[in-house]
Design goal:
Shape: extended
Largest sheet: 4 strands, antiparallel
Mean pLDDT: 75
Low-confidence stretches: 77-82
Structural class: alpha+beta
Strand content: 15-25%
């Protein structure tokens, strides 16, 4: 075990110690951290390799590039098989700002540019709420660590609430394990 003599605290940064300090902005990093290793320049490394050694290296790089291209082509040919969705119910509801999708992968919530995704093993419960008045249908995803994520979808008509609840129940019955 390594022991150090002296203070283990780092120097404070702030307006009392640095007159150029502005709260909320990150402090400028030092040019090089104390424990950093000196970096070698790529040009120096290439200059160190002699011309005789360069030919086998280039051949090996060309072979590696060909293998990488072959691997990419085989991966591309396999992707359509993986992206096929299995047969099963899917629930999707959206309005101008919010969207919820529940399918074989899990539940995805989107509000404006923000989104979150929950796999079925990450979900503790899914709760729906239809208001007595108004057209906002609320779906809340609860996680086992006592967090919840609500999203409100504005329906075109109140009659959609019943359809959405039936579709979501079918998805939950098919994929959600209690």
């Amino acid at each position: 075990m390594e022991q150090r003599i002296g203070s283990s605290s780092k120097p404070l940064k702030g307006a009392g110690f640095d007159p150029a300090f502005i709260p909320g902005l990150t402090s400028p990093e030092s040019a090089e951290p104390e424990d950093a290793e000196p970096e070698t320049d790529e040009a120096e490394a290439e200059a160190a390799v002699s011309d005789e050694d360069a030919a086998p290296v280039e051949a090996a790089d060309a072979e590696a590039a060909e293998e990488a291209e072959d691997a990419e082509e085989s991966a591309e040919s396999e992707e359509p098989e993986e992206s096929e969705t299995p047969e099963g119910p899917v629930f999707e509801a959206a309005d101008r700002r919010a969207k919820i999708v529940a399918d074989h992968k899990g539940v995805r919530l989107t509000l404006d540019e923000e989104s979150c995704e929950f796999r079925w093993d990450e979900i503790g419960a899914v709760e729906t709420e239809a208001p007595r008045f108004g057209k906002r249908f609320t779906v809340t995803v609860h996680t086992p660590d006592r967090r919840w994520y609500p999203i409100e979808i504005e329906a075109t008509a109140r009659s959609r609430f019943k359809e959405w609840e039936e579709e979501l129940d079918a998805v939950l019955d098919a994929y959600f394990e209690e």
